[in-house]
Amino acid sequence: MAGGDGDDGAELFPELLSFAGRAQALISELLSVSEGALFFYCSSYGLGGIVYLDNPDDFEARINGSRELQSLEDELRESCSAFFQRFFLLASGITNYHEELLKYLEDLQVGRS
């Protein structure tokens, strides 16, 4: 609610502004992490997907039979740890955000009663 004196609402609802800023940061990180997803590399070689779980030996034989795929596997091993660390930090951030937002909304509802 904007006041007549040029107030844009930020002073009235700083918590909401903070939640909006955090949501924007989480969405930005989600987009950034999704751009580097491992399946992007694997799908270009026909190795991606859950089909791997049906017959992992075939996929391993395919990788071991190709220097290019072995090089790709080495590259993925090097970059996986950083990717998964970012992914789990993002998941933790989303969980914390959700819990704090629910608590804020609950407090807001109780305050109105």
Task: Report on the architecture of this protein.
The protein is mainly alpha-helical and 113 residues long. The protein has one domain. Helix content is 73%, strand content 0%. The chain contains four helices and no strands. Helix 1 runs antiparallel to helix 4. The longest helix has 46 residues. It holds the Pfam family Strumpellin. InterPro entries: WASH_strumpellin. Belongs to the strumpellin family.
List keywords for this structure.
single chain; 113 residues; 0% strand; elongated; WASH_strumpellin
Summary?
73% of the residues lie in helices and 0% in strands. It contains four helices and no strands.
Query: What is the quaternary state of this protein?
Result: single chain
* Sequence of secondary-structure elements: HHHH
Helix content: over 70%
Main β sheet profile: none
Distance between termini?
21 Å
Strand content: under 5%
**Number of helical segments with 4 or more residues:** 4
Tally of distinct domains: 1
Uncertain residue ranges: none
Q: What's the shape?
A: elongated
Strand tally, please? 0
Overall mean pLDDT stands at 78
Radius of gyration: 23 Å
Pfam family, one: Strumpellin
GO biological process, one term: actin filament polymerization
GO cellular component, one term: WASH complex
Family: Belongs to the strumpellin family.
